[in-house]
Design a protein that fits this description.
single chain; alpha/beta; MetI-like fold; D-Maltodextrin-Binding Protein, domain 2; 3 domains; 5-stranded mixed β-sheet; 8% strand
């Protein structure tokens, strides 16, 4: 493991460094905003005492809201990218800053304040020259707590296309790759320690000399001088990152495509990107691992992205709220018409990849219970554990529909999102999982796919979805999808997924190599 991790750090050092710097940018932006809001708010409630309880109670309430829930609620309003991620971190960073600012200001000796009033200082002068300087050590403690927690919380930015080290963490979780998880987690831990060290230096700089621990004035001055260098370097880094961020060029003729948070969708998104750029000469940016269908749909409706690859079964059942059926052509035609009518979106020709649901298990469990098809599970009603994704656990074309059609019951039904359900299966914490028919992890773990002998699952053909105004401007995108469908199929897609999930290949690289070999007219030269 250690050798693999070191090797990954060497081979992927460019990507890791880029994500590391991106993480710093996002964290610093959120912290500065939280400080700009939290400290004035803390000062305000120290003077307007009736407001202190409701303000702190609200900050406490926000802390109790699950971070993923708050992020999901922010997407329809703020879109995707850095905005919802920064908003999330700002909200969660406010409580320690507000509480410590309030506590620091309220715990100053009354005699000192009376003395300040006695020499004729105004309220504003007392605040600036007495109260804030005396409260700074306590205030900075709150800022340091927020700063360290913000680094970890900012990993969620990757969930909404905001970038940062969370991209590696989520990619590793998705592909059951501990090396990639550590490659994102270790730099995040190092960054948290660095941030704490920098704010410790700032704390010393802003604290009055009389309040700095030490035996003599000289030792206190030396300590301040040392911390001044640390803080100065940190300020230069932040300025450099800000300049770099502002200097990024933008393209007038460009499209933004997103992918969902699994390998196949990411590969197909990169194929669309490269094929559109080559065939139509349009600059395309791909946002990988944006999230599930609901996040992508919300993003395309808000204009944050121009297109993504969806699945006909998801459109038909989840978005159009229709009963699952197995007719491929009917599902496609109704999905196309429904997306146009309800959302003003164009469903392009199918990419000829049917990524439908399956129920899977290990060879040992299949042999022990004699499982070949889904109907065989009925003989063991109430004895097996189903460990499935949260989506499959609640969808009508998922576990509820399968149970109703086949008359099944399970001893336990556990929701585990993403690739960890494979880990649960292999560790004996589950007996049956849901999987996609093209999932590379099926091959990686050598699992048995149970035959859907009663046709519980509708077809899930991959289809590019774009905004209508984009298709009016670039109708050639439909031709690109048609050409891709000529070289893709379900078995080929399963093989490409395996390269990413098992051999740890880069999805963009896998997409490029496939186009170069099977559709050179669409590949980047």
């Amino acid at each position: 493991m250690i050798l693999e991790l070191l090797n990954y750090f060497v081979t992927a050092r460019g990507e890791i460094f880029s994500l590391f710097m991106e993480h710093i940018q996002l964290t610093m932006l959120a912290l500065l905003a939280a400080i700009a809001i939290g400290i004035p708010l803390g000062i305000l409630i120290s003077y307007v005492k009736p407001a202190s309880k409701p303000v702190i109670a609200f900050a406490n309430l926000v802390q109790a809201i699950p971070s993923m829930a708050l992020l999901g609620l922010a997407i329809p309003v703020l879109g995707i990218g850095m905005k919802p991620a920064v908003f999330l971190v700002v909200i969660y960073s406010l409580l320690p800053i507000i509480k410590n600012t309030y506590a620091g200001l309220m715990n100053i000796s009354p005699q000192m304040l009376e003395a300040a009033e006695g020499i004729g200082l105004t309220k504003s002068q007392i605040l600036c020259k007495v109260r804030i300087p005396m409260a700074l050590p306590v205030i900075m403690t709150g800022v340091r707590i927020s700063a360290v927690s913000a680094v970890g919380l900012m990993t969620l930015a990757a969930f909404v296309g905001g970038g940062g080290l969370g991209f590696l963490v989520f990619s590793g979780i998705r592909t059951v790759n501990n090396v990639k998880i550590l490659a994102g987690a270790i730099p995040a831990c190092i960054l948290a320690l660095l941030v704490d060290r920098v704010f410790a230096a700032v704390e010393v700089l802003v604290t009055p000399v009389s309040l700095i621990p030490g035996s003599s004035k000289e030792s206190k001055r030396k300590k301040k001088k040392k911390e001044k260098k640390v803080a100065g370097v940190a300020v230069l880094v932040v300025i450099a990152l800000a300049v770099t961020s502002l200097a990024r060029p933008s393209s007038e003729e460009s499209l933004t495509i997103a992918s969902m948070d699994f390998s196949e969708n990411e590969i197909l998104a990169y194929m669309m990107e490269e094929a559109i750029e080559t065939k139509l000469g349009i600059s395309v940016e791909t946002i990988p691992d944006l999230g599930g269908s609901s996040v992508c749909l919300s993003s395309i409706n808000s204009g944050e992205i121009d297109g993504y690859v969806e699945y006909t079964g998801t459109i038909y059942v989840s978005m159009l709220k229709k009963e699952p059926i197995s007719d491929v052509d009917q599902v496609y035609e109704e999905a196309k018409a429904g997306m146009k009518e309800m959302y003003g979106l164009e469903v392009l020709p199918s990419l000829n990849v049917n990524n439908t649901y399956t129920l899977s298990t290990t060879k040992e469990i299949a042999e022990t219970y004699g499982l070949e098809k889904i109907s065989d599970l009925k003989k063991w009603n109430g004895q097996l554990t189903a460990t499935t994704t949260l989506t499959f656990l609640n969808r009508e074309d998922g576990l509820p529909g399968v149970k109703e059609l086949y008359g099944l019951t399970f001893a336990k039904e556990v929701g585990v999102d993403g690739a960890p359900r494979y880990t649960a299966l292999m560790s004996g914490e589950g007996d049956i999982i849901d999987a996609y028919s093209t999932d590379g992890l099926l091959k990686k773990f050598d699992l048995v796919v149970l035959e859907d002998d009663k046709g519980a699952f509708p077809p899930y053909y991959a289809v590019p979805v774009f905004r209508s105004e984009v298709m009016e401007k670039y109708p050639g995108i439909s031709d690109v999808a048609q050409e891709l469908s000529q070289v893709l199929n379900t078995d080929i897609m399963a093989g490409l997924n395996y390269l990413v999930d098992e051999e740890d290949r880069d999805p963009k690289e896998v997409a490029h190599e496939f186009l170069t070999e099977y559709a050179p007219e669409l590949a980047e030269k």
